[in-house]
Amino acid sequence: MLKALELHPGVRVSLHYTGSLLDWLLEAHPEFLQRLSELVKRGQVEIVGGGYYEPILPSIPDADKVGQIRHLSEKLQQVFGITPSGMWLAERVWEPALPRYLHEAGIQWTVVDDVHFKYVGQEDSDLYGYYATEDQGHMLKVYATNKMLRYTIPWRPVAETIDTLRSLATPDGTRILVMGDDGEKFGSWPETDRYCWGTQTEPGWVETFFSALEEHSSWLHTIPLGEYAQKQPALGRIYLPTASYVEMSEWALPPRKAYSFGKLLHKYEETRQDEALQFMRGGFWRNFLVRYPEINNQHKKMQHIHHKVYKAGATDEHGLHHLWKAQANDTYWHGLFGGIYMTHVRSAIYHHLIKAENAADRVLHGTAPWQQYTFTDFDFDTRDELLVESDQQNLYFDPQRGGTLFEWDMRRSAHNVLSVISRREESYHRTLREHEQERRKQLALSAQAEKKSSDEKSNVQEPASPHTAVRTKEHDLDRHLTVDRYRRASLVDHFLPPGLPMNSFAHNRYEEYGDFVERPYQAAVKQDATGTEITLSRTGSVRRAGALNPLPLHLSKKIVLPPGEEGLSIRYELTNQGQVTLQTRFACEWNLNFLGGGANEQAYYYLKQREPARVPFDGTEELHEVQELHMGNAWLQQDLRLEVSKPATLWRFSLDTITGSEAGFERTHQGSCMVLTWPLELAPGETWSVEMAWTGQPELMAATESFFSSVAR
C-alpha cells in the first residue's frame, strides 16, 4: 500500500496504525515508518489517532479511555511530528457518552458506519459530509463510512466504483463519500494478495483503482478527513444511538436469534428492501459479557486491576501500560473470526493483567509474602465469589456454581492456568452443518459435483468476502461439534455411571448421577500465619444405577493455600448419609490452558510411569493407577506437579472448538480437560477421602527430566 501511494501522489488518504503495530514497526521495520513520514510531510497521508492498544472504548474505565487516546497522540507526535485531529473507533462501537471523552482527549472527529445514522432515520443521500454531535457540551464531528464503497472496494471491478461516484458528483465539489475499513482486506484475506497487488506482468486491483482516481481527478478528488473537517461545515447536528457495525450487532445476539437475524438481513438485501434494512437492529455489544462468562471474567478482572493500578499511582511503574495492553479488544467479543476463542491472545490478555497486578501490588503490599481473601460480587450477578490473592498466586472460587475454581493466576510466570473457554453453540455452526451436508450430498452424486462443491481455490476474478464465503480447513468438521452443558472451570465434582467411556464424557453423552455440578456450596474461610484454609461443602444426592431413589451424600473439599508458595492442597471427604450402600464413580475435573495447541513442543504432560514420559499437552488418553503427574509449558517457565493420595484413573482430552477464521472453519485447541476418577462403595454413614497436592515452584522444572534444557536451547 505504501509503495502504491508513493507511485500515485495524487491519491490522498487517512491511515490509522495501532500503538501495538507502531511499537513493532519501530523495532522491526523503522524504514517503513521513514517512508510513511515522507508521505505525511508532503501532505498525501494524514495519520489518524485512536486508543493506543485498540480498546472498545465504552468497555473500559473513563480514565483509560482518555489516557489511551492521549498516549497514541503523543506517540504520533514523536514519530511523525504531528498531533492527530481524528481517531479510528475500534470496531465502530459507539455509545452516546463518547463525545465527552474524545473531546477531552483532544479528538475533533471520528468515523462510524452509515447504519449508525440510518437508525435515526437518515438516508444515503443525507450522508455526503459529516455531522456534529455532543455530550454535555463536548462537540465531536462524525463521518459515516459508506456501505456501497465498503462492499465494492476491493471486491468489485474498479469501473463500478468510479461510475457510482460519477453519478453522485456535484459542480460545487462539497460532497464527500468516506470508505473506512480494515487494511487486511488488501492482501491478508484469502485470495486477495494477488488480486489486490497483481504480478510483474498484470496490475492488481489497487494499481487499477489508484490510476483511475488520478485519471478522473478533474471531478474526483481524494482528501484526508481532517482537512475536509476543517474546510467544510457540518451537514447538521445529530445524536447517534448505541450501535456498532451490523455484523457485530448480529454476533452479539444469542445463536438462534443471530442466525435468524442474518437470514433476514440477506433476504432484505437480495430483495432490496432498504426500508426494512434501515431499521434492522441486532444486539448490543455489551451483551458479549452475558453470552460468554469467560469474556465477563476477563472484563471484570480488568476492572479489578484498574482499581489496583490507580490506587498504586497509575503510572507505567505501577502497571498502567500492562493494564492498557490488556484492554486490547480482540478477545472481549466474538464474531465470525477468532475473538475470545483465540487461545494465545486470551492468554496474553491475562499475562498483561497479571503483570499490571504484580506492579501495583508491589506498591500496595511491599515485597514480603502476603495473603488476603475477600467475598465479593466479582462478576456482578448479585452472588459473591471468593477471591484469594497473595504474592505468589491468585485463586478465584465460585461457591454458588459448584464450589468451582475459575481462575488461577501464577504471579511469577504471569499466566492464568485456567484460561479455558467452554464449547458453545454458535450461529455459524448451523451454516457449517448446512455446508457439510450439502458437500456430502454432492459427493454422493458424482466426483464432478464434489469438485464444484468443495474446491477452495476459485478462479473467479473477484475473491469472495470471508463474511459470505463458506470455507473449511478440513472436511466433516460438523461431526466434531460439541456443546458443553456447564462452564469448563476446575474443581468440578461429578458422580458418573459405572463403566462410562471417556469418549462419552468428552462429548457430553452421559448422565450426571449427582446434583453437584453448578449447584450452590457453602463456603467458609480461615486465615492465619500458616496460610488460608477454605472449606466448600454441599449436601446433595446421588442416583444409583437401577434404583429409583437417590441417596443423600455430603461432600466437603478443604483447600489449603500455604503462604509464599505456588500451589494448594485439597482434601475431599464424601459421606453416605443414606440408609443403604452407595456404589458410584466419583470424578474431579480440571480444565487447564498451557498453550498446547498443534502439539506445541513447549507444552506437555509428563508421567514417569509411561513411555514416553513426556507427551503433547493437547493429546487424548486414559491411564490407570495414576498418583503423580506433571504438566506445564517450558516457554512459560511454568510447571505444575499433581500428587494424589489414592491411585486414580486419569482421563485427559483436548477441548476443541469449531470456530471461524479468514481462511475458513477450523478446530481450535482451548485447553486440556483432565479428569481424575475413583470407584466408590460407601456403606451407610461411611466416609471416603482423597487428597490432592498441586505444587508449582520453579525448581520443579528440573524434576521433569533433561528435555527442559534441550527445549530451552
UniProtKB/TrEMBL annotation:
UniProt superkingdom: Bacteria
Keyword Nucleotide-binding in annotation: no
SUPFAM superfamilies assigned: Families 57/38 glycoside transferase middle domain (SSF88688), Galactose mutarotase-like (SSF74650), Glycoside hydrolase/deacetylase (SSF88713)
Protein name according to UniProt: Alpha-amylase
Domain called Alpha-amylase/4-alpha-glucanotransferase C-terminal: residue spans: 377-692
Domain Alpha-amylase/4-alpha-glucanotransferase central: 283-358
Record field: compositional bias (Basic and acidic residues): 431-441, 449-459
Keyword terms of this UniProt record: Carbohydrate metabolism
Pfam families: AmyA-A_glucT_m, AmyA-gluTrfs_C, Glyco_hydro_57
Region feature (Disordered): 431-475
Family (UniProt): Belongs to the glycosyl hydrolase 57 family.
InterPro entries: A-amylase/a-glucTrfase_C, A-amylase/a-glucTrfase_central, Gal_mutarotase_sf_dom, GH-type_carb-bd, GH57_Enzymes, Glyco_hydro/deAcase_b/a-brl, Glyco_hydro_57/38_cen_sf, Glyco_hydro_57_N
CDD domains, A to Z: GH57N_TLGT_like (cd10793)
Domain Glycoside hydrolase family 57 N-terminal span(s) in chain numbering: 4-241
